[in-house]
Amino acid sequence: MKxxxxxxxxxxxxxxxxxxxxxxxxxxxxxNEVFAAVTGPFVNLIFAPIPGTSFPWxxxxxxxxxxxxxxxxxxxxxxxxxxxxxxxxGDYSDPNDAGEVSHFQALATALSGTVGLGNIAGVxxxxxxxxxxxxxxxxxxxxxxxxxxxTECTLGVKYRNEYPDGTVSGGxxxxxxxxxxxxxxxxxxxxxxLFSLFCILGALGxxxxxxxxxxxxxxxxxxxxxxxWITGLIFAxxxxxxxxxxxxxxxxxxxxxxxxxxxxxxxxxxxILIVEFDKIGWAFGQIFAGAFTGLGVAxxxxxxxxxxxxxxxxxxEAGVGSAAIAHSAVRTKEPITEGFVSLLEPFIDTVVxxxxxxxxxxxxxxxxxxxxxxxxxxxxxxxxxxxxxGNTGVxxxxxxxxxGISWFPYVLAIAVILFAFSTMISWSYYGLxxxxxxxxxxxxxxxxxxxxxxVFVVIGAAANLGPVIDFSDAAIFAMAVVNIAALxxxxxxxxxxxxxxxxxxxxGEIKKFVSKRS
Amino acid sequence: xLTKIVVGLDGSGSGSRAVDYARxxxxxxGECELILVYVVEWSPFTFQTPEENAERxxxxxxxxxxxxDRVVTPAVNAAKEAGxxxxxxxxxxxxxxxxxxxxxxxxxxQIVVARTSESGITQRIFGSSxxxxxMHASVPVTVVx
Lengths: 518, 145
Prior knowledge:
Chain A is built from 21 helices and two strands. Chain A has one domain (28-93, 102-505): Amino acid/polyamine transporter I (Up-down Bundle), CATH 1.20.1740.10. With 518 residues, chain A is mainly α. In chain A, strands 1-2 form a two-stranded antiparallel ribbon. Chain B has helices spanning 13-29, 50-81, 95-106, 120-126, 129-136, and strands at 3-9, 32-41, 85-93, 110-114, 141-144. In chain B, helix 3 (95-106) crosses helix 5 (129-136). Chain B starts with a strand and ends with a strand.
């Protein structure tokens, strides 16, 4: 990291000083070139293919882990699904604890950090490269990822720090260092530090630059082309006002509007699907056929699979460790209950919302298909499926929705900006927690991170999608490298919690709280 | 037999009129315990930022302390000085639900509340806490104007 960011920041300063002399477009290009060159080696390392194949080892790492957790915990995501919903509804919440963070609130907060551009732009990228078949693998990865999320969030609550003033800090860095110590395994502190470093990169990448980038793409799609750094500066200003200036009202308003935007998004997708219901069967046919045959997409079957898995992981962050930071604020006597609640997150995020986006894109006919062969037509470079207007990312989703509801791109633009903003606020918190774990709590150290976070908003908005998405993915997956390794070591602790909870639930020791009036 | 009366406090003038009325009732009944309840309006189904969540426990403690210091304790002390058997409770949640829950659990004979202190659009959409309590209460409710 030491080698990467000072150079990137220098690049920005250099490019800023050239502002007067050069045209705006050139600034964007300069930022882009410097950024791509600097982050290249890191990206290549994370996405290195397994020798002899074209399959990135990191994707395998995530899927194998999610499968192992699924088997180890006996398909926890299906067996305990109903119980998870009961927990969110508050059926098992002690009324005397009212006023503390509820399961619902922890879930909603974590969701507003994950539901966002990954669901709108990320899915479009996956389907654009991997074809509709990528959706199948995305859903599968979402279902498996529920077990990863369960494991990490249980540990997040169990090993969080509670300070004398009543505030809490939790997340992988805490459960790695404390959990390893408890099990007498060395290296916990080192891994916690490594995770924190990657978490800071993830916060700056996927939690920040990717969001700024796609928000700019959306705004310029409606207002016409203009330099990205302008959007970046505006966004950075608002983020600065919230995280440095402490203007919490902006964050509060966003947190309250975002869920409604999410509902509106799913509602619009549903309307399009209902109107085009005769094509739904065909779309699912495409998804299944594409999942196993490739239908002529870039990279064939493996391409679809890689894209599906990658975008699911990027969208729901299962195994990444970020959600463990968000969920650890819940004050519950049973850490495992927060694990159950958190497993709903990949379900809502990936299995429901991402699938909606993928279905709308598939049905819209934006992806150009050869009518005779039924195979997709690739672009000139052979890297992506050609689209009607040459769109990719959020612009593709926007165009797909516009085929059903012509004015929806305007609503989507607002949704994207709000999603991007709320994800940034969430990730600024995750990054800050990692930062303070490394450098200690304190006003000055916190300010350094927050200012750096705002600088990266500008870089993200100015750079091209390609390098930004590569770096964002790489940074987020780097977190998963450390986190999942730690989860393997700590999963017996979660199993112990699960068994104890299960037996107490069966014996009636843990029971529903029923209101006297009902 | 000890008669219990649950009194809803809201920190306003009308809230204290409810306490005054309950004290009068208590004196007439004789063997009577007043339970003064202040409810901090709170719903488990709101949306919060990660930072708000992390600080929630601290805020809750502060809210309870503030309600105790500013509203409940002065009311309890005043009633005690006047010779009443009295205790105070601060809880988080829905006012109407909690007052009724407490009354049922404590075996109270009635609930005394003030006329609503809410106004405007909230009341129009959600109805006032007092109106909700009156409609759903399990024990008799006296509303003091």
